[in-house]
Structure formats: C-alpha cells, structure tokens
Amino acid sequence: MISQLFRKFRKAEQKGTTPFIPRGQRVYCIGDIHGRADLLEELHTLILADVVAFKGTKIIVYLGDYVDRGEQSSGVIETLVSNPLPEFESIFLLGNHEQALLDFIEYPVEAAAWLTFGGREALYSYGIALAHLPTIHEVPQLAERFDNELPDSHREFLHNCFESWRCGTYYFVHAGIRPGVDLDAQMPADKLWIREEFLTSEADHGAIIVHGHSIFMEPQIRPNRISIDTGAFATGVLTCLVLEGNIHRFLQTGK
C-alpha cells in the first residue's frame, strides 16, 4: 500500500534553505534497506507505479546500509547491481555498514566488531553460517573466506558507492554532516557515522540534508534535514522520499 504524505514547505514560516529540485526532474530517495531484499522489491514496484505518468528526468538515490541485520544482504546488492530501474539515473551512497564490511575484509582483527552489529547476518547471506562469534585468532581466516565468497560484481558495487550527492538545494548523505563545516569539507567518517551533533542542530547547513542512519518510526521533516530511516529490517517499513520542485512526499512499504 502506498502511503503518500503531501507537504509543502512554508517559506515564510521556516528558516533555512528553500527546498528546490530543478524543473523537469523527480528524485526518489530510499532509506536504509539493511538486508531486506523483499522490501526493496516491493518499494521498487511502488516507485514504478508512481512514476508511470512522469515524463521528465527520473533519478533514484539510495542512502546506503544495504547490508547487515536483515538476512538478505547478498540479495539486496544483487538486486541493485542488476539495474532494476533502467529508466532512472541511479545514485548509490555508501553507508557505515558497507564501510564496516569492507574494513573487515581488509583489516579483519581491527574491524572484527562488525560481526556484532550485523556482520553475522551478512555473512550468512553469502553462505557463511557462524554457530558462534569467532575468536580473535579465527577472524583472519573468516575474513579470507568471505573475501573469496564475495562476488566481483558486489565488490565493485561497494567500492564505487559515493559518499554524498547534491541536487538542487538538497544534499544526500548516509548519516549526516558536521554542523558548522562547509559541505565540501565534510570528513568521510562524519558522513557515515555522525548522529547527535547533527540531529540536534538547528543550523542552516546551506542545503537541506537528506539522510538515514538514525532510526525513527516515521520520517522526520525539519527545516534543515529530512530523515528517512524507518528501521525496515525490524519494522517492515522501508521509506522512499519523493522530491519534485519544492514538494516532498513519501512512499512506504507495510503501510
């Protein structure tokens, strides 16, 4: 079922950046998927139904965290590399969980904590089942096995994700940005991991930040940011933000 919440920003009442997507473009932006290939497929179906009458440029942005927690990490990436929406320009952003996965392969001992916050589920989706957490001595061998099992197309996809992307007066990023720092000078770690300093900031960032990473039961709309991580892996609600002109609305699974 499609949940569409039509809203229009009230320019006179809200401080900060005026929302704007260039004329003739429509942007669909999907929040944290976390191993729910089933929900991703459902949301793609909703998007295709929603866009059928639109004749302009169609763009889809994925905010990262494709893997971990849910049991279909491999399926999510396989779906994305198969170009499921060929008429769209696709933008794939890097999430902290993708970075943790890549770090585990390259620095297994230092990044072994990944196994405690979703890595075990990701490994399972690639055919590597763990009956228990490995000891620190077993971790390098496990990382090598995973490296061998990871398809080249998945590896290439993960390495080619962007840290951020801009369109009109919107700035798309996985976690958020460091308030007070120019958008072009943001540190990669902040883009992937920042939370409270960003979420509590009321500053005008010079763009409206569209992000995931921090779970809320409903999308959060603030003058300086829009949050669309609705905890899909646990709630069954995967959210897509739709932007056109100065209007925003939502498509959601499980509604």
Number of helices: 9
Helix-residue proportion: 25-40%
Intertermini distance:
5 Å
CATH class: Alpha Beta
Poorly predicted runs are: 1-14
CATH topology: Purple Acid Phosphatase, chain A, domain 2
Strand fraction equals: 15-25%
- CATH architectural category: 4-Layer Sandwich
Structural class: alpha/beta
Going across the major beta sheet, what is the strand order? 1-11-10-2-3-4
Arithmetic mean pLDDT: 94
Instruction: Let me know the number of strands.
Output: 11
Sheet of most strands: 6 strands, mixed
The fourth-level CATH homologous superfamily is Metallo-dependent phosphatases
Q: What's the overall geometry?
A: globular
* Radius of gyration over all CA atoms, rounded: 18 Å
Sequence-ordered SSE layout with sheet pairings:
Elements: E1 7-8, E2 25-30, H1 37-51, E3 57-62, H2 73-81, E4 89-92, H3 96-106, H4 119-125, H5 139-149, H6 152-159, E5 164-167, E6 170-173, H7 188-193, H8 196-199, E7 208-211, E8 220-222, E9 225-227, H9 232-235, E10 239-244, E11 247-252
Parallel strand pairs: 2-3, 3-4, 6-7, 7-9
Antiparallel strand pairs: 1-11, 2-10, 5-6, 8-9, 10-11
Notes on the structure:
There is one protein chain. The protein has helices at 37-51, 73-81, 96-106, 119-125, 139-149, 152-159, 188-193, 196-199, 232-235; strands at residues 7-8, 25-30, 57-62, 89-92, 164-167, 170-173, 208-211, 220-222, 225-227, 239-244, 247-252. By secondary structure, the protein is an alpha/beta fold. It has a single domain (7-252), classed as 4-Layer Sandwich (Purple Acid Phosphatase, chain A, domain 2), CATH 3.60.21.10. The protein has a six-stranded mixed β-sheet with strand order 1-11-10-2-3-4. A five-stranded mixed β-sheet has the order 5-6-7-9-8, with no helix packed on it. Helix 1 (37-51) runs parallel beside helix 2 (73-81). It is globular. The model is unreliable at 1-14 (pLDDT under 50).
